[in-house]
Write a structure and sequence with these properties.
The N terminus and C terminus are likely disordered. The protein is built from 8 helices and 15 strands. It is 32% helix and 24% strand. By secondary structure, the protein is α/β, with parallel strands linked by helices.
Length: 354
């Protein structure tokens, strides 16, 4: 945690307070001080700046067994806006969000055929509609969060591949966006799902989401509230020698586990071994598991073996949507705080955290 900062430099502490109010709309000042690990005076100091900027609201409520009303802090939904976009061969599914993460409007735009050109055209069209004000009655669009099934780099937002669209040339989404568009980040669907898993179970550390689709295994891990490994779409964390196979993997290892996965089909024993490798390498304590055909997996697979806490996730679409909203809302709030701090002081004193 950072030291106490001046009101002209709200910094990380103010961002942490605002994010806590975003994720816990009923949070009180006392709860904040306890969860963040700072004094009540520090909370008062930083919330004052957030209140002055209109980023949060304070509301007095009566609590049982409390002599005086307590103050709850809530993000001001009208202080900014965001857009979530899911790209697929079928087109674009988007949601306009208020600053507090609530969905303002749903937007869909289909593609006539699954090509890179049509998908990107639909993406640009939806963003332009929102920027023109046709889909949102708010001051500005502050951030765009994008989700794909494929290989990506978050920042700059590069999509290296999109499942179901062949051929696909690597593209920086900033080169596709209309002029004047806000900052943009791209994540894989499994990254959104691990963020949703964290919210569902109330655990932001040492968790992993595994998704088995056909003969492909996607995974993402989260550590200390941050996306950690696998979320960009590759199997980099699973590269480890497990056999005497002389064939050399692209990582330079022989008998690499990733080669076994790519040979398919992925059987229960192989999936269990993948979970064991991930647990050991990243010290994972909780798994979310999404199977494309749960009925095909017998009880003898024993996927909950060896100290693994496991949640079977049967609604992957819900988890993708909610996780993308959370990732986008968090990034949006950071950018709005950064913009307010720059405007307040006349220069960019605060960089978005994370």
């Amino acid at each position: 945690m950072t030291s106490l900062l001046t009101p002209t430099n709200p910094g990380e502490t103010s961002t942490t307070i605002a994010l806590a109010a975003l994720l816990h709309p009923t949070i009180t000042r006392r709860d904040l001080a306890r969860s963040i690990g700072v004094s009540p005076a520090t909370i008062t100091h930083h919330t004052r700046w957030l209140l002055e900027q209109g980023l949060i609201h304070s509301r007095s409520v009566r609590m049982p067994h409390a002599q005086r009303p307590v103050e709850r802090l809530e993000v001001n939904p009208d202080r900014g806006g965001a857009l979530t976009v899911s790209l697929s061969p079928r087109g674009v599914i988007a949601e306009v969000l208020a600053l507090d993460g609530r969905v303002v409007k749903h937007i869909q735009e289909a593609t006539p055929r699954p090509t890179q050109q049509t998908v990107l055209h639909a993406f640009r069209s939806v963003v332009q509609r929102v920027m023109d004000g046709g889909e949102i009655h708010r001051p500005a669009l502050d951030f765009i969060g994008v989700s794909v099934v494929g290989y990506v780099n978050a920042d700059p937002p590069i999509v290296y591949s999109l499942d179901g669209v062949e051929p696909w040339m690597p593209i920086n989404l900033e080169d596709v966006l209309p002029a004047g568009a806000p900052a943009c980040k791209v994540w894989t669907d499994v990254a959104s799902k691990v963020r949703c898993l964290a919210a569902d179970i109330g655990q932001m550390d040492a968790i992993c989401y595994l998704e088995l689709s056909g003969n492909r295994l996607h995974y993402a891990t989260m550590r200390q509230g941050q996306l950690d490994c696998g979320w960009h779409g590759t199997s980099s964390g699973l590269h480890t020698s497990v056999s005497d196979d002389p064939t050399m993997c692209v990582c330079g290892r022989r008998g690499c586990f990733v080669q076994l996965l790519e040979q398919g089909p992925i059987k229960p024993a192989l999936l269990r071994e993948a979970m064991q490798i991930i647990r050991r390498k990243f010290d994972i304590t909780y798994f979310g598991l999404e199977l494309d055909d749960p009925a095909a997996w017998s009880e003898e697979a024993n996927l909950e073996a060896s100290r693994m806490k496991l949640k079977h996730c049967i609604d992957g679409e819900r988890m993708r949507c909610r996780g993308l909203r959370l990732l986008t809302a968090e990034e949006t709030l950071k950018h709005v705080i950064h913009r307010c701090a720059a405007s307040y002081s006349g220069e960019a004193l605060v960089r978005p955290v994370g």
